[in-house]
């Protein structure tokens, strides 16, 4: 058996807009996969959020996350297998990062900014959910009670007239 050789890797992950609403959960999922396979995370940052060139899983927009980590080369295949099975990550790409020093990789670390954005996205999602819940209650309570906007009172049975059409024959 050969000795483990840890090498630096650069990985790009593409997550959907729906998953980006729970950005903290998506980041935790990626970190968990890397660490499960004995990877040592050096840096992570949001690279970009953009429109995709073509639809992937019926998604038109995505968020790209860039990571730098050390891992055994044999574990990259296992990470790719887990990511292919994951429903949270749409696409991924691993590259050997021998061209970068550890200091360069650490300089790219923006996990604090990523955590702040994840918190902001979670707050916005909670606000949208609260507003959507309030709109549904308002429509059901006032608009459908037989007021001026409706054609019929809500207690009128519209199927009662169907039986009388047989009397004409």
Set out the fold topology.
Elements: E1 6-16, H1 17-20, H2 23-36, E2 40-56, E3 59-72, H3 73-85, E4 91-96, H4 102-107, H5 111-143
Antiparallel strand pairs: 1-3, 1-4, 2-3
In words, what does this structure look like?
- The chain has 169 residues and is of the alpha+beta class.
- It has a domain at 20-122: 2-Layer Sandwich (Alpha-Beta Plaits).
- It is 41% helix and 28% strand.
- The chain has helices spanning 17-20, 23-36, 73-85, 102-107, 111-143; strands at residues 6-16, 40-56, 59-72, 91-96.
- It has a four-stranded antiparallel beta sheet.
- A hairpin with a 2-residue loop joins strand 2 and strand 3 (59-72).
- The longest helix is centred in the C-terminal third of the chain and has 33 residues, at 111-143.
- The chain is globular.
- The termini are far apart.
- The relative contact order is 0.18.
- Residues 136-154 have low confidence and may be disordered.
Q: How many angstroms separate the termini?
A: 91 Å
Q: What is the CATH topology descriptor of the domain at 20-122?
A: Alpha-Beta Plaits
CATH architecture of the domain at 20-122: 2-Layer Sandwich
In total, how many beta strands?
4
Report the major sheet: 4 strands, antiparallel
Radius of gyration: 26 Å
Give the strand order of the largest sheet, numbering strands 1, 2, ... along the chain.
Answer: 2-3-1-4
**Which bin fits the share of residues in helices?**
40-55%
- What is the molecular shape? globular
